[in-house]
TrEMBL record:
<keyword id="KW-0812">Transmembrane</keyword>
<protein>
    <submittedName>
        <fullName>Rhomboid family intramembrane serine protease</fullName>
    </submittedName>
</protein>
<dbReference type="GO" id="GO:0006508">
    <property type="term" value="P:proteolysis"/>
</dbReference>
<feature type="transmembrane region" description="Helical">
    <location>
        <begin position="23"/>
        <end position="47"/>
    </location>
</feature>
<dbReference type="Pfam" id="PF01694">
    <property type="entry name" value="Rhomboid"/>
</dbReference>
<keyword id="KW-0378">Hydrolase</keyword>
<keyword id="KW-1133">Transmembrane helix</keyword>
<dbReference type="InterPro" id="IPR022764">
    <property type="entry name" value="Peptidase_S54_rhomboid_dom"/>
</dbReference>
<feature type="transmembrane region" description="Helical">
    <location>
        <begin position="161"/>
        <end position="179"/>
    </location>
</feature>
<keyword id="KW-0472">Membrane</keyword>
<feature type="domain" description="Peptidase S54 rhomboid">
    <location>
        <begin position="74"/>
        <end position="206"/>
    </location>
</feature>
<feature type="transmembrane region" description="Helical">
    <location>
        <begin position="132"/>
        <end position="154"/>
    </location>
</feature>
<dbReference type="GO" id="GO:0008233">
    <property type="term" value="F:peptidase activity"/>
</dbReference>
<feature type="transmembrane region" description="Helical">
    <location>
        <begin position="74"/>
        <end position="102"/>
    </location>
</feature>
<feature type="transmembrane region" description="Helical">
    <location>
        <begin position="185"/>
        <end position="204"/>
    </location>
</feature>
<keyword id="KW-0645">Protease</keyword>
<dbReference type="InterPro" id="IPR035952">
    <property type="entry name" value="Rhomboid-like_sf"/>
</dbReference>
Amino acid sequence: MNDHATGMTPTGRSSSDLLKRRAGNLAAGALGAAIINVLMVGAMWVIEVADYVLPGEFDVYGIRSWDPDGLGGIFLAPFLHAGFGHLMANSLPLLILGFLAALRGIGRFLAASLIIVLVSGLGVWFTSSPTAITVGASGLVFGYFGFVVARGLFDRRALDIVIGVGVAIAYYSIIWGVLPGEAGISWQGHLFGLVGGVIAAWVVRRRRRRAVAPAY
């Protein structure tokens, strides 16, 4: 007797069971995505309040361009802001885009966030004025935008494509932020954040399994 692989669904697993499991996974992912983004934005607000109340300026720990000692600011800058107005402008898009970026799993989200922070931060460090100190989560906002849109292209899952198209339509106007414009606004952080988001979507994309020929 010859053994061979078939494409049949395991006994007892109906399509409704699969739909329920996927719905449960999506609900769990949505809850985790909401929690981690609320915690992240909440941490930014706590730091900004502390910066307002305590003596000294936290912003000096941002990205100091062309200064080797300022490289550590790459990881600190997203949590620092030049006042509450700056933080408020970033908070809502960060919550929305960060939530959508985290829907497919916290591990992928954290890996994508690290890539975005590194690409955006290094881009700012290399291309900004040597006298500039850059702070703010705008790089993450643009990064999550690029990540969510590109994820639909790379993963080609129906839900990711729909989300990517929706985000592209809703936030298309932010693309202008990657161009040099208003003084005091780091277009470099926006541009390299967007690039980092696309790179992250490629790096953490779903790997498709190669089709295995039946064994006889």
